[in-house]
Design goal:
This protein has 287 residues and is of the alpha+beta class. The chain has ten helices and nine strands. The N terminus is likely disordered.
Amino acid sequence: MSLWSSPMLRVLEPGDYFGTTSLQYGDDGISVVETSFATDLVIPQHEHVNPFFCFVLDGRGTRSWPARRGKDGPMSLTLFPAGVPHANCWYGAGGKALHVEFSSLWLQRLGGRTRVLDRPDDFVDGAPVSFMRRLVRECREQDSATPLAIEGLVLELLAACERSVWRAATVGGSHRWLDRVEALLHDRFREALTLDEIASDSHVSADHLAREFRKHFGLTVGEYVRQLRLDFACAQLTSRRHSLAAIAETAGFADQSHFTRVFRRRMGVTPGAYRAQLLEDRSCTKD
């Protein structure tokens, strides 16, 4: 079993948000739902089948992504991708939110023209919040033109979010996007990530990422990931709880032989010798 295994997460079906819901609009792959949440509600970690925006209408709600950009961040307008575990809390007298959810049909219509719906993000002001407020008004004052208006507003909302993320990554936002890359690597260093995947997550090119990352951290992305894996392995080697093969697999190495080669090159000893020395030192200290 993996060192990082966890209980089965609850996966929420379309329209389920742990509250009392009222459908405001539903057509052509988009659903808009108003949800009321109970007093002092703690929502355990879960994930959703579809991506959606959550716009807080009343109260104070927070979200937390395990190991992603901090915990218990306040929500104003938050994008929750499909299949990304998270938890929520609603404080005091509860709260109310508008959820805009996208079905697979709508994602097919987008045809990959935006990656906004693929990653978690928060928008606190600016054009994204302005478009969402207009969407709230449109849902409350519907007429025969509402389907056209909502489709147009949703497209403008996605474009505004895309531009907001792009500006943060390119206009005076180097530290912010590098912080995002660093958080991603700490969260997913066990995975076989490609440079293109990492760059895409922060809306920069792979060449720009490689150049700026090395300039900022003094290491290549690959060297940084390798060091994270070694740090994790060293922590696991402080006890005999897990085998060397299990540690190698969980840390992201190809196999135990690969783990041993990288560890010996960096630490000067094999993982087994490192563990034996640690345990001997601990025994001597107790004596």
